[in-house]
Design brief:
This protein is an alpha/beta fold and about 290 residues long. The chain has helices at about 1-15, 25-35, 60-65, 85-90, 140-155, 160-185, 200-205, 225-235, 250-260, 280-290, and strands at about 20-25, 40-45, 70-75, 105, 190-195, 210-215, 240-245, 265. The chain has a 4-stranded parallel β-sheet with strand order 2-1-3-4, with helices on one face. A 4-stranded parallel β-sheet has the order 6-5-7-8. Helix 3 crosses helix 4 (about 85-90), helix 5 (about 140-155) runs antiparallel to helix 6 (about 160-185) and helix 6 (about 160-185) runs parallel beside helix 10 (about 280-290). The structure holds zinc ion. Zinc ion (ZN) binds near residues 132 and 133.
Length: about 290
């Protein structure tokens, strides 16, 4: 008899302490989720932070990661449209299907900017629903953390008070950090910048910095010499050229060589550069590189 009861007890014991499995598309989502769920969840990111977030290679190893997930959290606003849908289909995991509790789209909780007049990817525009890089506005982070906590509570109600306590701690810490960022960024209010891709518009708009142009003629379309020439001719009062870690720096260096405007390389996600270890240091480094 005992030899049946012991394995049974062990089984129940392990089940009650089983961690929920959360798959996220990008490292910034994984980091916020891990800070709220702590040891109650195994959290993974499908994409690495140093890659172009629009074009992640849909490797078979990513299907495996989706297969046993209890919850999938995505950025949304079409940022994953080029790589995630076939992975979800092939994972064939009913728990994370869109329109279920196991699927959370963070873009539903924020206001998108730069929504195109007619929704289409014609011309290669990779922002068909508007600008999807909303998490780089620090004001959106607590909103996203709220949405993640709410969903963790729904799928794992037994740990809800634990998640809510961690959310409070996270928001307190984030708001302390944000005071420092806001103070430092005041010096750049009203400045003009160029950027390679429309990655930092939410961040820049929040601090009243003007995007005077992008090296890409359209989001996702590589720079042309005619377009760069136009930027060079209209570069009066432009303070910086902002460059991400994953596009070629040739165009930025070319404009810089013709105008003398310095190029600043910024991380766009946790893990884009080694110093951007988490959501706090991601903003620390962006602010530091812009204001030093
Ligand atoms: Zn983009």
């Amino acid at each position: 008899m005992l030899r049946y009861i012991f394995p049974l007890i062990l089984f129940i014991f392990s089940f009650s302490f089983a961690k929920i499995k959360v798959a996220t598309t990008y490292p910034y989502i994984a980091d916020i989720t891990q800070k709220i769920a702590k040891d109650k969840a195994n959290v993974i990111s499908l994409a690495n932070g140093n890659l172009d977030p629009h074009f992640i290679t849909p490797k078979p190893s990513l299907i495996v990661k989706l297969r046993d997930a209890d919850l999938l959290i995505i950025n949304g606003a079409s940022l994953e449209i080029g790589w995630l849908p076939p992975l979800i289909r092939q994972a064939n995991n009913p728990k994370i299907n869109p329109n279920t509790n196991g699927f959370l789209d963070l873009s539903n909780f924020v206001e998108l900017i730069q929504k195109p007049e007619n929704v289409s990817r014609a011309g290669g525009d990779v922002h068909p629903e508007g600008n999807p890089h909303f998490y780089l506005n620090p004001n959106n982070i607590p909103i996203l953390a709220d949405a993640i906590t709410q969903r963790l509570c729904e799928i794992d109600s037994g740990n809800c008070s634990f998640y809510k306590q961690n959310l409070n701690d996270f928001k307190k810490q984030f708001s302390e950090k944000k005071k420092v960022w806001d103070e430092k960024m005041k010096s750049l209010k009203g400045s003009k910048v160029y950027e390679y891709h429309r990655l930092y518009d939410y961040f820049l708009t929040n601090y009243q910095i003007i995007v005077a142009g992008t090296l890409e003629p359209l989001p996702g379309i590589p720079p042309t010499s005619k377009h760069l020439q136009n930027l060079i001719e209209n570069s009066k009062d432009v303070k910086f050229i902002l460059q991400d870690v994953y596009h070629s720096q040739d165009a930025a260096k070319f404009v810089s060589s013709k105008t003398g405007i310095p190029v600043i390389i910024l991380p766009h996600d946790v893990g884009a550069i080694p110093e951007a270890k988490d959501i706090f240091s991601l903003f620390d480094i962006i602010v530091e590189r812009l204001t030093k």
